[in-house]
């Protein structure tokens, strides 16, 4: 991630929630794999994910568009990577 403003926003997001205490290399690596696994499971047997399954796997996201749900999961992976 090369945009300094995005890094600054992510760092502020993390600081507001006091998440830095959880951002050890081990915890970040585990979180990246877990989040990626949740997304990949939706595509395990087919390149075309079932929209309802994507919503169900990532139900804590309140997006109507399944593509936004997948993008949000990917963003969480990037958040962990950028904030670490």
Topology summary:
Elements: H1 4-16, H2 25-41, H3 51-57, H4 66-83
Helical residues, percent: 55-70%
Second CATH tier, the architecture? Orthogonal Bundle
| Global shape | elongated
CATH class: Mainly Alpha
Report the sheet-strand fraction: under 5%
Structure description:
Helices cover 65% and strands 0% of the residues. It has helices at residues 4-16, 25-41, 51-57, 66-83. The protein has 4 helices and no strands. α2 (25-41) runs antiparallel to α4. The chain is mainly alpha-helical. The model has no long low-confidence stretch (mean pLDDT 74). It has one domain: Helix Hairpins (Orthogonal Bundle). It is elongated.
Please tag this protein with its features.
84 residues; Helix Hairpins; single chain
Explain briefly what this protein structure is.
65% of the residues lie in helices and 0% in strands.
């Amino acid at each position: 991630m090369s945009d300094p403003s995005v890094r600054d926003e992510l760092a502020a997001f993390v600081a507001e929630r006091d998440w830095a205490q959880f951002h050890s290399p081990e915890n970040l690596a585990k979180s990246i794999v877990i989040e990626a696994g949740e997304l990949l499971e939706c595509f395990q047997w087919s390149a075309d994910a079932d929209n309802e399954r994507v919503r169900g796997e990532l139900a804590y996201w309140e997006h109507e568009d399944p593509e936004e749900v997948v993008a949000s999961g990917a963003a969480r992976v990037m958040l962990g990577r950028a904030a670490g």
